[in-house]
Amino acid sequence: MAAFSSLTDRLSNAFKHLKGKGKLTEADIDGTIREIRRALLDADVALDVVRSFTSRVRERALGEEVSQALNPAQQVVKIVNDELTQVLGAGVDRPLNFAKNPPTIIMLAGLQGAGKTTLAGKLGYWLKDAGHTPLLVAADLQRPNAVTQLQVVGERADVPVYAPEKGVQSDGGEAVAAPGQTSGDPVKVARDSIQYAKDKLYDTVIIDTAGRLGVDEELMKQARDIRDAVNPNEILFVIDAMIGQDAVQTAEAFNKGVDFTGVVLSKLDGDARGGAALSVASVTGKPILFVSNGEGLKDFEVFHPDRMASRILDMGDILTLIEQAQKEFDEQEAMESAKKMAKGTYGLDDFMEQLEQVRKLGSMKSLLGMIPGMATHRKELEALDEHEIDRTEAIIHSMTPEERRDPSIIDGSRRARIAYGSGNTVSSVNGLLQRFEQAAKMMKRMTNKVGGGIPGMGGPAMGGGYGKKGKKGKKKGKSKSGNPMKREAEEKALRQKLAGKKNSGGSAFAKKPQNPALPAGLQEAMDAAGTDENGTPNLPPNFGGGLSGLLG
Are 215 and 109 contacting, i.e. CB atoms less than 8 angstroms apart? Predict the structure, then answer.
């Protein structure tokens, strides 16, 4: 996550000088603690939190668990990971408190600009995906167009919105109040929404409340009035991960004002230092329940203190990656794709289906960021073009069904047509086909190494044009025919000849005959020429030149 990238780099550097040491001295530990302290302070973590954190780490690092460890450096990293997990939420995952008798009422509170309205849509989408029937309530009648924004977000998430009041409009339309004033009673809206949810059988109500640019008594009074009117099961404090040291003071003020029950971290994809947000759980004693790390509806996940600590220490988050994959991937389709890989019949259509499943998981950068050790490749991750998948799909969609099933038939003219139809260059099409063929060969070799097939699928992985023979008999010609018609006839003749052989020539794609009959006289000429030891026709030097070049 971008908000913690600087902290991750600093902490990784703090552990570097410990590697390779069989025993750690007190000076080694003090030096590491000093670097950790600087890293936390530089990331805007609250001073009191830093002091207690480094004190606990030093006490444990100087104890027997490090002195008697086989790998002291790794033991120190484990201690830091354990203590960081405690700071992030005492190492306990707490789910939402659902009401025994629906509807469950969730109230969102926080400063203006923290992302409450967007978060309401994400939370509604997440609850709907979990089988609930949520209702969004537009109780923010202070900010211009806040009601309209919630309606747009609700429409994207396919979650209904209760909005009896229109609120203040920024210009034209239904301007019923001056800026800074409300056009309705947010407390009444919140109270009426509960009865509306009961009548319409919604089991969860998410109330979006107004915010201010700063903490003031008017803001707190309105929040308390809404709280007292609806008696929510959860009051979630939404905090911007990029606001710096002011995060602690704001969290304490809202805790005293409305006594929130949980925290939601938003904008973790920002490039500002997000360490102050890590202090909220420790300072307020309230758990972090969710995190939001993007603008998309799916850029929202349950907060796990231990997993977040692992991400910050560049140890990855494989569990979250597995959970997302299990949620989005179709197990039956994955098994079918594996069988096709083993048989050598895996085509571009199958590749397209897997691309679509990967897209469901979210951003490629966020997925790769969950792999351990990826912090050292942050520059490569930042340079990753997310639209490359779109260009790949455009190229494949520009192919005919026959071309997707058998890429070996794609010659120069077909590549030019595909490039023109997809808005790409011919070199891009060539690159995709080359990478796909190399990947197909690699997958074939992998299945052969595990006993000729994938375990549990029955039988060896045979056929499909991935033969091992015929790799040495390829010769590189000196020239190719400049006559397109002549070259096409030569290529068709060669494919017809090779189709009669059991060997596929080592290509990742099985060659198929294009013409059932050879041109008159060509068969006699090829029979008279004969073949060499590898099955390659012994063509005379003046026989078109293009055939020898094609073999090369």
Answer: no
